[in-house]
Amino acid sequence: MPDPICPLYGRPIPPEAPQSLHHLIPKLKGGKGGPVVLLHQICHSEIHATLTEGELARDYHTVEALRSHPHLGRFIGWVSKRPPAFHSRTAGKGRRKR
């Protein structure tokens, strides 16, 4: 069976790569039980380091919308040049959200 594909940037998620489910509408904003997508953990972490729960629920509740965000678009370009199992720390809560 082939590896699942990260819908954010279209590359395989190998079994050894950290991965997690992303609720397209945050659970705290009514998305509990709603649609989820399997992402590389680095992609999932970058989404939550970049956008607030409100922004995710209001404007970025589809994969296409996430890809269109300027910062996430640059991130996708950067991470797509790394091996599929690549992982590094994300700036996280210390980064100013835009």
From TrEMBL:
Which source organism? Allosediminivita pacifica
Protein name per UniProt? HNH endonuclease
Task: Show the PANTHER family listed in the entry.
Answer: HNH DOMAIN-CONTAINING PROTEIN (PTHR37827:SF1), TUDOR DOMAIN-CONTAINING PROTEIN (PTHR37827)
